[in-house]
């Protein structure tokens, strides 16, 4: 017996016990629907995916080559197609996640319309997108299993026992499209209570990993923009605690908290930290402030001062009433932020950098790992970086440091297409290709993500189609650039009716109504033009 057949037998027993009123119920149809609906609630998904992430974290600790990856998605369909593609090309979803980008929620999902990444969008949009993503991933499961069930029925009709056995094995060992989502809660959307309430909604929708940053929630900025303002550690720890309480209340005891520090690019703080004795956490935070040493006689009206080592220090306060940090302290603040977060309940780190430079990332992580040896990083392979220019400049600087002749290159213009086939550019491209592998080995990066790649791919593919369709190519722009590629590359959306659930619905109708079912997939359905025999005949 198999798991699938065991379920059929169990439902058959239930049917028999229920008497003749259940005569229309087909136990195998029930077993199929159960297989297609493995996850009943978001909390089941959150627990299942938390277990996956914890397993992956342990495996990474033992071998840094088994890092994990994700792409940011902004709609359930995009997340679904990503996971379908991964299963098709790579045969497994192992070590592949989804990332829910606050940037893309703001830019693409707000009822206010496109917004900057400044926590101005509705916070309810975040758990709503988590739920939407898992709805589409579960539908991908149902659709793929439905194809297997149809193939099983066909194999039974022709009596192909070997194929029946192979298909039953595939059904029993089906790998779900449901994978972990690392979900962006920004700076918590308010006070710790607000953070807790939002985290609960995200977890209930299925999120097993919540990323939170140490910016002021009412002045939050995109990590790659200016004007970032951090909060003292005690304020941030309260929000880490709020997320942990949300996980524990809902029974997800191994939920993951990703603590992000924006201190590398944040030169401002909203308030001074409370300190009770020299060297405590508040004192360490304040020690990075840009200050002037003054005497008591120099105190001005409304001045705020700090006393340290018997000296009066006046922090430099801007017209905005914000205080600024000393220039050049960003990396040290990132290290302190990271160590503090891990010591106070965070599981993974995120250090937002201004460029993709392994040496810079490794230098900070090496300092963190002196205190927390198994510290692991989630890293943003950001589209805000000009990857081509950055790595060509790194290649240029490496040649220069080696005493090589770089007279053929203009460092300020290395983005030029004129350099594309040069040794320097090819070397830079190879460094980009191996960046994730190399940085996972050298800089403790457990998870690599791109925050908003599908924002860019949607724009690029739309541009490709529009520039031909609305010009002289007409329908050929669509046929050659989209449909023909879908057919030849095996992109399942070429049969868009099937992808949207039409065939799945037809099968359900047959379960419910038998021969009386009115089905959409008959001979007059134009999607039949994309069936394999039809394609072969043309």
From TrEMBL:
The active site is at residue 222. Pfam families: ICL. Can also use Mn(2+) ion. GO terms for molecular function: isocitrate lyase activity; metal ion binding. Its cofactor is Mg(2+). The keyword Glycoprotein does not apply. This is Isocitrase. Keywords: Lyase, Magnesium, Metal-binding. InterPro entries: ICL/PEPM (IPR039556), Isocitrate_lyase (IPR006254), Pyrv/PenolPyrv_kinase-like_dom (IPR015813), Pyrv_kinase-like_dom_sf (IPR040442). Mg(2+) binds at residue 184. GO terms for biological process: carboxylic acid metabolic process. It comes from the Bacteria. PANTHER family: BIFUNCTIONAL GLYOXYLATE CYCLE PROTEIN, ISOCITRATE LYASE/MALATE SYNTHASE. Substrate binds at residues 101-103, 223-224, 260, 380-384, 451. It catalyses: D-threo-isocitrate = glyoxylate + succinate. The lineage of its organism: Bacteria, Bacillati, Actinomycetota, Actinomycetes, Micrococcales. Coiled coil: none annotated. SUPFAM superfamilies: Phosphoenolpyruvate/pyruvate domain. It comes from Cryobacterium melibiosiphilum.
């Amino acid at each position: 017996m198999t798991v699938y057949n065991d379920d059929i037998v169990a439902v058959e027993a239930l049917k028999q016990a229920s008497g003749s009123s259940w005569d229309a119920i087909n136990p195998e149809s029930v077993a199929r629907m159960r297989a297609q609906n493995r996850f009943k609630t978001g909390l089941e998904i959150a627990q299942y995916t938390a277990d996956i992430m914890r397993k992956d974290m342990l495996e990474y600790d033992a071998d840094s080559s088994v890092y994990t990856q994700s792409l940011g998605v902004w709609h359930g369909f995009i997340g679904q197609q990503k996971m379908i593609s991964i299963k098709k090309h790579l045969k497994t979803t192992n070590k592949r996640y989804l990332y829910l980008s606050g940037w893309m929620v703001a830019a693409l999902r707000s009822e206010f319309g496109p917004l900057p990444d400044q926590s101005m969008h509705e916070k309810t949009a975040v758990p709503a997108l988590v739920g939407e993503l898992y709805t589409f991933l579960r539908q991908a499961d149902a659709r793929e299993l439905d194809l297997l069930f149809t193939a099983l029925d066909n194999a039974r009709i022709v009596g192909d026992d070997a194929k029946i056995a192979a298909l039953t094995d595939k059904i029993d060992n089906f790998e779900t499209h449901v994978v972990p989502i690392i979900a962006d809660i920004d700076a918590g959307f308010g006070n710790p209570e607000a953070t807790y309430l939002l985290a609960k909604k995200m977890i209930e929708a299925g999120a097993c990993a919540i990323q939170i940053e140490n910016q002021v929630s009412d002045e939050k900025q995109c990590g790659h923009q200016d004007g970032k303002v951090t909060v003292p550690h005690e304020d941030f720890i309260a929000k880490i605690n709020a997320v942990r309480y949300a996980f524990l209340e809902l029974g997800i005891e191994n939920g993951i908290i990703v603590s992000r520090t924006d201190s590398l690019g944040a030169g401002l703080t909203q308030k001074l930290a409370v300190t009770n004795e020299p060297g405590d956490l508040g004192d360490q935070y304040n020690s990075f402030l840009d200050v002037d040493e003054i005497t008591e006689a120099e105190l001005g009206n409304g001045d705020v001062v700090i006393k340290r080592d018997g000296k009066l220090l006046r922090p430099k306060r801007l017209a905005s009433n914000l205080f600024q940090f000393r220039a050049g302290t960003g990396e040290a603040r990132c290290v302190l932020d990271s160590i503090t977060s891990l010591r106070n309940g965070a599981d993974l780190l995120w250090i937002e950098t201004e460029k993709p430079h392994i040496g810079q990332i490794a230098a900070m992580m090496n300092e963190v790992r002196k205190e927390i040896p198994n510290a692991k990083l989630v890293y943003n392979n950001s589209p805000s970086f000009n990857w081509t220019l950055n790595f060509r400049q790194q290649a240029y600087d490496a040649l220069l440091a080696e005493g090589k002749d770089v007279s053929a290159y203009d460092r300020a213009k290395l983005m030029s297409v004129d350099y594309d086939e040069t040794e320097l550019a090819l070397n830079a491209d190879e460094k980009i290709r191996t960046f994730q592998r190399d940085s996972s080995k050298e800089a403790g990066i457990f998870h690599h993500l791109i925050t908003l790649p599908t924002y860019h791919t949607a724009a690029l593919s739309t541009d490709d189609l529009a520039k031909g369709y609305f010009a002289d190519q007409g329908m050929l722009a669509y046929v050659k650039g989209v449909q023909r590629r879908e057919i030849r590359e095996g992109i399942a959306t070429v049969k868009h009716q099937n992808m949207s659930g039409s065939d799945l619905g037809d099968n359900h109708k047959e379960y419910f109504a038998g021969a009386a079912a009115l089905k959409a997939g008959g001979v007059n359905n134009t999607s039949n033009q994309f069936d394999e025999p039809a394609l072969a005949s043309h």
